[in-house]
Structures are given as structure tokens and as C-alpha cells.
Amino acid sequence: MSMTLLQRVALTGLCLAVAGPLNACQKNPVDSTEPKAATTVQDTLKPTQEVMEEARLEYVMLETTKGNILLELDRARAPISVRNFIGYVKDGTYNGTIFHRVMSGFMIQGGGFTPAMVKKPTKAPIQNEWRNGLKNEVGTIAMARTENPNSATTQFFINVAKNSSLDQPMSGGAGYAVFGKVVMGMDTVDKIRTAPTGVTPDASGRPFRDVPVSVIEIKKAVQVAPDAARKMLDTVDDTSKAASETPS
Fold it and tell me: Mean pLDDT throughout 5-26?
């Protein structure tokens, strides 16, 4: 699929904000009413399937200055990326970081810099899992990297458009690895997406573009137990249903 000019410009910077200043990166990056009989095979299997589903999913809440974002991470399809992300959540790396690169028609990127544009220390980079079957669709979260496919560390981005071009081999001969999605808080993502941006220097004076004019901070990133996450989602679903049933 061919990329639009906006996507080409945006892609050039997708690794840029990981690597450094403006010139640091090359281009191309129904329930039954009948009484139930004895337990059926399906009844027996359902709990097992639910357990398997729980085992493959992790949840993380990003508490930002624009609102909260609940992420559902697919550990079955992206074990390396999820383990890496959860590790940084647990050690507090993401607390106090910012969304340092925002493009309203492309993605919002964060996890690597402090409000003073000081780059956070990282652990060793991870292997790129871009062939896991997860796509760069609206609301998905993926790892940011340099032109080296296996260079991702802390930085991530949330897609705010269907970025199919990122699923294809490009910079370094690989795409960008998706490892989860936003399941609550897309309204917060939209607030971040539409924030005014400009050029801001990092701590050493090097210019970065597409930086929000007003700091958008991840105050805290916390892992959420699956049961607690489901309760949050059920509450949202019930609220939405009630709202839709209210006469206007």
C-alpha cells in the first residue's frame, strides 16, 4: 500500500524521536429462558477458555494529565514486547514521562522523555515482533524504534489512524510491532492527538518537532489485574448502554 505524503513525513520521524534530533533518522520507516440440564461439554470448556484468555492478556493503566488510558496487552502474540513494557511499568520508568511527539493524523508517541526533554535510561533493546499478526490500526499500541528493527526500548506509540504502511517491511526491512490496544480512554487519546504542537529543544538544545506546546505527562503507569480491568470495562459498558437507552 502506498503511503501518503503525511504518512511519509510522519514515518521519517517515528524513529527520529527515538534516535535523537531532527536529522537523526533516514526516511521509510442470548441467554436461554429454559432451565439448564446437566452440564454440557461446552459448559465444561467455557471456564477453561476464559482462563486461557486471561493468561494471554495483561492490562496497564496510563494515568495522564489529559485523563486515563487502559491498555490491553497481548502476551500470546507479542510476548517479548509485553514483557518489556510490563517491566518498565513495574520499575516506574514511565512515571513522569511525557508524550513528546504528537501527530493528529498519525499517532501519539511517548515513554522516553521527561518534561524537561531529558531522555530516560533504558535496558537492552528487544527483538522486533512485527510479524505477530497484530496490525497498526486505530487504537493499537506499538513499539517505537530507530531504523534498526531490533532497537525498541521504552518508547511506544498509539495509532490514531489506520497505518497499514507500518505493517509492511520498511526501515531496516521490518514493520512496527503492535503488542496491544486501548480498551478504555480513547477520549483521552483524542485529547492528546489534538493538542497544539511545535518545535522544542531537548536538554542539550537539539530541536524536536511535533512536541505538545503544553506538557502532557504520564503521571503514573500501573499494572491492573485482569478481574479489575474487566470490572472497569463492564462499568463503562453499563454506563454507555444506560445512556443510549435514555430518551432524548
Answer: 49
